[in-house]
Amino acid sequence: MKIIIKNKSELPIYEQIEEQMKTQILDGTIKEDEQLPSIRQLARDLKISVITTTRAYNDLAEEGFIISVAGKGYFVSPRNNELLKERMLFEMEEGLEKAVTSGRNAGLSDVEIIEALKKFMEG
Amino acid sequence: MENILEISGLNKSYGDFALKDVSFSLPKGYIMGFVGQNGSGKTTTIRSILNMAKTDSGKISVFGLDSVNDTIEIKQRTGVVFDSLYLAEHLTAKQIEKQLKPFYNDWQSDEFFKRLKSFELPDNKKVGEFSKGMKMKLMIAVALSHKAELIILDEPTSGLDPVARDELLDILSEYIEDENRGVLFSTHITADVERIADYVTILHNGKVWFTGELNTLAESYAVLKGAEEDIPESVKEKLIGFHAYRNGFEALIKTDDLAGLPDSLEYEKANLDDILVYIAKEDKNERHAENNAV
Amino acid sequence: MKDMLKIMRFDFLTAADTGYFPAVFLAALSVSGAFLFGPGCAAALILTSICFILPLTSVAEKSEFHKLYGILPVKRKNITRGRFLYIFMLHFIPEMIALLLLKPAFTLKAYRILPNQGSASLQLIENAFLSEFRGPCMKIFIFFSISCFAFLYMEFTGQIFGHENDIKSIMVLLLTVTAVVTTLTALGSHDIIQVDFEKIRNIKTLTAGISLNTLLFMICLLLGEITAGKVSAKEL
Q: Which DSSP category does B30 fall into?
C-alpha cells in the first residue's frame, strides 16, 4: 500500500488517504483480506495525526472497503461484500456515462461507441 | 475516553496580563497543539500545569492527579522540553545522566544512551557546545528515559531548521504510537500543528478561542474575498478580522455563515495561520472602533 | 531526607568538574603545609569547600536551573534545604579530615627534612610542632566556623535578594560583625558589660569544637528553612 500525502492540496488529508486507498483496493494493488497497518502505525508512517487516520479508516469501513476485526485490526473487505459491489457498480455506471457523453461529443454514433467498448473488453 | 490532562477555569493575573477562565482537555493517546501569539499565555499555562506558577483559581489535573498536591508524582511521569536547555552546560550528556538518574523511579539508562545514539548526540562532549537542535533532542532524550506518559513541549522548535523540526515531528509520531501517552506542545509554527496534532487549543489574549479536534477547526472557517459592496449587511458583523485594501477585502468567516452569499464573493478553506492572523486583525479592528467611538 | 541527599549529590556533580582541580591543588598545599610548616596549616583544607560551592551560582544562572528545578520530581523546599546542607557538609568533611591529620603531623615531625635546619625560621616551625594540639584545633574550628557561616550567609542572601548582591552582602556582614565586636570589646574593657575574657580563653578545645559545629549546623538548618519558605513562595 502506497499513500502519498500532498500538503498543499485542497483536499483534506483524510480524504486523500481515502481516495488513494479506495483506488488501490478497487484496482487490486491492495489485495482482498490483506491486513492494513493499524491506525497509529499509519499515522506514524505518514507522520500525520492519529485522528486523521482514524477518520479515514472509519469512513472506509462505513463505505465497506475495509473491515475492523476486534483484537486484530483492519483488513481489506473480501470482494463479495455487498457494499463494495455496489460501489464498484456505481463507478462503472459513472465511467459508462462519461464514455457515452464524451463519445457523443466527439461526434461518434451510438454504434461506434459500442464498438469501441467491445474492443476495450477484448483487449 | 480518559483525559490525560484536564484544565478547568484557570485564572491567573499578573501585571497587565491575565489568563481568563482557561479550560481544555487532552484525551489519552493524542497530540494537542497549543497555539497563540506571543504573550497570549501559553507558557504561563504550561508553567501552571507544572506547578511552577501559582494560579488564582481553577483546577488542573494530570493523569487524574491534582497539579498542586500531587505535583511530584506527576513529574515522575512527565517529560518536559523547553525552548532553551535547562541542564548544566559544562557537563557532558554522560555526566548529566548521572545527575538526573537518582531522581526518577523509572529511569532507564540504556534507553537514554540508545536515544543519544539514534539522535546522534555525543555522550562525552560538553552539552553547552551542542547546536540548538541537538540541545532540543537532548531534552527529549531525557524526557523519554523515565517512562514518561505525558510530554509537554514549550516552543520546542523555535530557532530550529526545517530538518530538525521534521525530526521532532517524527519523534513525537513515534512516541504517540502508544495510546496511553499524550503530548502537549505549544508553538508558533502552525504547519507543525497542522501536520501532526489531533487536537488544538488556540489561546488569544489569555482566553481560549477554540479547543477541539483540529479537523473540526479546519472545516469551520474560510477566508472570504471580494468587493466590499457585495457583502450583505447581515453578514458584515459575522466577519472576523475584516481588512479592506485597494482591490477588495479579506476576512475570516465561519463556514456555517457562507450559505447564501453572492457568487461574486470567493472563499477558500482557512488554515491555522489564517485563523491566527485574522483573530489578531479582529482585535486591532475592535481597538480602532473603540478609539473612534471615544 | 533522601531528596536532600539527591540534591547534594546533584550539586556536587555540577561543581565537581570545575572544582576538582583547584580543590586537589589546595588540598595538596594544606596537607604538605600541615606536615612541613606547622599542623595549623591543616585548617586551609577547608578552603577546598570553596571550589565546590562557588561554581554553583554561576552555573545555575547560566544553565537556567530554575527550569530544571521545576521539572524534577522534588519538592522545592527540599532543593533549598539540600543546598544549605551541602554547604555545611562541604565544610564539615574537610574540617574532620584536617583534625585527623593533626596527630600524624605532630608525630611525624616531617619538618626535619627541610633545609636550613637550625635557622631562625626553622626555629619558628619547630615551635609550631612542639606546641599543643589546642592551637591548630582551634584554628581549624574557627576557620570552619567563619567560612561555613560566610557561605551559608551568602547563599541565604543570594537566594532571597539575588546573587548579584553577594559581595555587598558580605561587606554588610563584615561591617556588622566588626561593629558588634568592637562595641562589645570596648564596653567590656570599660566594665560596662561583663565579658569574661578569661573564661573564653580557657574554654576546653573539645567543648569549643562541639559547640561551634553544633551552632553552625543550627544556623544551616535555620537559614535553610527560612530560605526554603521564602523561595518556594516565589514563582519559578
A: -
